[in-house]
Amino acid sequence: MAAKSIRPELADALGQGLHNIGQAAALTGVSAKMMRHYEAIGLASPSGRTFANYRLYNDADLHRLRFIKRGRSLGFSIKQIETLLALWDNPQRASAEVKQLARAHAKELAEKIRELQAMQHTLETLAKRCHGDGRPACPILEDLASAPATTPKRGSKRDVSR
Questions:
Q1: Which residue of 13, 26, 41, 44 could cross-link 8, Cys pair, CB 3.0 to 4.6 Å?
Q2: Model's pTM, two decimal places?
């Protein structure tokens, strides 16, 4: 029969340098809610639990949470972060794969920036055409009302057929 791992009391665990979820959140800048979410989707898990089933985080767990937070701040998707974590965890990885992923993401960001700049330009042009006074005529509303119907891409957020 395998020996059961002993779950420490919270005070003992904290005395051993482990952190509860609130402390881990404060040390990483990742909210407790997001830490639970990352655990649920398999990105990051606490290293243990107390006798009362509280999550316990060690320094390696905190480092992983900071990695995830930094990846999210750079706009990487959860799937991309999952790939990056797998590469980070693999000491035999090729940096070429990491570089390729970063360049592909930078290209996606550049396209999004172009799209946002086009939206900004359109809104600025419409705002210049609007008198912004008591008259009911408004080029902004006219433009919004005259937009042609489009078919959402299959699988997009606006695709309600699923």
A1: 13
A2: 0.77
